[in-house]
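re: ur question from yesterday

yeah so i grabbed the chain u mentioned. its 76 aa long if i counted rite. heres the sequnce exactly as i have it in my notes:
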Amino acid sequence: MLPEEVKAMILAAMPDAQVSVVDMRGTGDHFDIEIISRAFAGKTLIEQHQMVFKTLAGEMDRRIHAVQLKTRIPKE
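ran it thru and got these structure tokens back, copy pasting raw so excuse formatting
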């Protein structure tokens, strides 16, 4: 899976997000993902991560094996 595909999936669910996706091993299945989005406002870190994993759920069982995830709310 390409980082651009992962990014597109996240942006489809969170259009306002700033998303960075890096293929950690060059194998297309281990990604370092950083997301900054207003959609995370008022949510705990666990809830933020659950939002992202829900977005990626279809691929987590098939093409994505590991994700290192960082989420945050944009500074105003």
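noticed a couple things. The CA atoms of residues 23 and 31 lie 5 Å apart. also The mean pLDDT is 95.
anyway ttyl
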